[in-house]
Amino acid sequence: MIAWFAANRVAANLLMWLLIGAGIASAFTIRMQTTPDMALNVIDISVVYPGAAPQEVESGVIVKIEEAIQDVQGIDEIRSIAREGLGTVSAEVLAEDELSRVLDDIKSRVGAIASFPGDIEPPVIKQQQQPFPVIFLALHGDQDERTRKDVAQSLREALLRLPEVTQVDVLGARDYEIGIEVSEHTLREYGLSMTEVAEAVRSSSLDLPGGAIQSSRGDILLRSQGQAHTGADFSRIVLRSLPDGTRISLGEVAEIRDGFVEEEAFGRFDGQATTTLRIMAAGQQNELATAKAVREFVAQRAATLPPGLQADLWIDRSHYLKDRLGMMLKNMLQGALLVFVVLSLFLQRKIAWWVIMGIPATFFGALWLMPLVPSPVTINTISLFGFIIVLGIVVDDAIVV
Known about the structure:
CATH class of the largest domain: Mainly Alpha
Helix content: 40-55%
């Protein structure tokens, strides 16, 4: 092969420029991330059930999937979560080499289920990926916890509308909790029992689906909104209606506290209470572009925050990628210059020029092939470390050979 290219210099030069051109084109599209994606030995089955309560999702979707896949060989554990309008079943696989077979078995088993509710969306079955955070946003200040949580949720929704952002998690925000305290003395005074109070609260904490109406513009979902959400809503719950029209409400017989669940852990930023947003990218998203978009977003939204609240970015992992990328480019330029100087001193400059062209041809050729292999390789801190190691080998060989 070397002898053939030595005798056909036009073909050699054409191949070199082809590698460089293809590598440059690939460099603009290849994904950049700090840490490569980590695929877990877990298969997720997600089913969207529009308008369904968690109980309906469990009975109509979750139970049927669990029964269909429970005897698939290679599954170690099955975990399920039923949410409003969404059911997720996760199957943990014993061995990594069994993952492909188990995935195919699960797809065939789930696809054969004929008793799903008619209005569900097609199940999505895929191997679970572990995304890594790109950057963190700390929302801190002297505002109360409720305001901080509401602003954090608003920022999360706005961030998710950015095309560069895949997932945003809110950390350090406690769940809302409504405490109801009823004394036995008050119950006896009104002639009520604890069972009556509990049943009234339970029946007022449900939203029930009412089906769907088909129209020319799509399906209209019907739902009875009966769920109480705030302390004021719970205080208006009717416990008993008397013959004279008088109503006894929960607020008359109980002390209702509208607050948050108690947690032992809490977060602080610069000595102030904080709620943190963890921002992640996945798929083909570029982490450098994600971090840049988030920085621009925060710069624009900082002035619109309520008085006493500040938004600061921290743990920007894209800096590690930029530093490693800068180190590789710096070493490549220094290596090319070193090869050119050494060969120019002992040989002709023309020879030195064509020898150093082997360095960009090598690396751009690798960039061209990285997204094409069966398991695409991204530009990350690990692959860049490999580039830096190989750069030394290429420079040494260019001088010696």
